[in-house]
Amino acid sequence: MLELKNRTPFRAAIVPFRDQHGVDAAAIVVKGTFAWRRGERGERGETELAIADEQLPIAQADSFHGEPGLSSVRQEADTCPGKAGTDVVLVGHAYGGRGVTEVEVELAVGSIRKSVRVTGERVYYRAGGALRISDPTAFEKLPLVFERAYGGEDRSSADSAHHEWEQRNPVGVGFVARQSKKDLEGERLPNLEYPGLFIRGPEDRPPPAGFGFVARHWLPRRQYAGTYDERWERERRPALPEDFDPRFFHGAPVDQTTPRPLRGGERLRATGVRPGGVPVDVVVPRRELRVTATLRGEPLDCPVSLDTLVLEPDEARLGVCWRAVVPCGRHLLYVDRVEVRDDTRA
């Protein structure tokens, strides 16, 4: 019987899987939750992180901001086989204030440098026969969700064949079909936009700007899933297609994914996401995790990589997922035991 010995303060789980080559393996997922100590600063002025008293469970399924499948993903399942780099996801709000109509939200860690302009509510209106965009309203805070970014659907055509949607973000706002019959008076526009790529009219198609997880059925992520056709049904099912691309496992937006895993020790900064303009400034935890699998009585050390960060400023916490893969060919049952240790020196 496969046994998991978790000798860390974090959560751990074994996730069996079979890759596109039909090879069995097991991913060992370790998930740590860290909270920042208010008022305590490190040597470089950053907020000190500590292992949280409450360790969040390993997510076995996606959770959503609203109705599953019809809203954006809040937390993606932690049970994927592995990632080539590190996903960095921000879940929270942009904070304005009295009379504030616009805030710049920035996220930076490792090779990631991302900036999004967040504005108050805007709508289309008509003046002198021309379609115009209203000035943004002031706001105290706005959720950083893809529902507030460019996207959505347009069902205005009488011909159902012309029902169109923004495949990069079907839950957003501002999308207008080419053959649209929609009356745009009063239609909302995106609150989240990339600098220099602001929407100026219904014909614009800017990239959706968000900091959260990208759903698996959205573009560009969907294109990495591979081809599930009659040949796949006949020859490979339930194995992954031959043209499956492991980039599919990355849930963060492309500009929030590092090409190689972070190692820990990097400075993570976010601005515009706390009241009063207070920035988030922390150091990614660096832990000396060890994963040892015992196969047929022989120990095997498996490299561990840090592949997911979830920053939640409203909860003053940072979630970290590490992952190791136990290669076992077609003999998963030969794995007797997996031990996870944390050799970090205090």
Description:
- There is one protein chain.
- By secondary structure, the protein is an all-beta fold.
- The protein has two domains: 3-92 and 224-342, no CATH class; 115-143 and 146-193, no CATH class.
- It contains one helix and 25 strands.
- Strands 2, 3, 4, 7, 23 and 24 form a six-stranded mixed β-sheet that branches.
- The radius of gyration is 23 Å and the shape is flat.
- The protein starts with a strand and ends with a strand.
Describe the main β-sheet briefly. 6 strands, mixed
Domains, number: 2
Mean pLDDT: 92
By DSSP, the count of extended strands is 25
Order of helices and strands: EEEEEEEEEEEEEEEEEEHEEEEEEE
Q: Report how far the terminal alpha carbons are from each other.
A: 34 Å
**Helix proportion range:** under 10%
Using only CA atoms, what is the Rg?
23 Å
- List segments where confidence is low: pLDDT < 50 over at least 5 consecutive residues: none
Silhouette: flat
Q: Please identify the structural class as seen in this structure.
A: mainly beta
Tally of individual helices: 1
Proportion in β-strands: 35-45%
